Amino acid sequence: MEIWQSERLKKISWVVHGTASRNFGSTRYPNAGEGQDATEENRAAFLLTLGLNAAQLVVSGNEHGNHIVSVDGKSPRRVGHCDGLITGVSNVPLATKTADCLPLFFVDPTVRTVAVAHAGWKGVASGMAIEAVRAFFGHGSRPSDLVVAIGPSIGPCHYVVHDERRDQMLERTPFIEPSDFHAGHVDLRAIVTRQLSASGILPANIDLSAPCTACHPDLFFSYALSRDSSEGMLSVISKV
Question: What is the pTM of this model?
Answer without folding.
Answer: 0.97
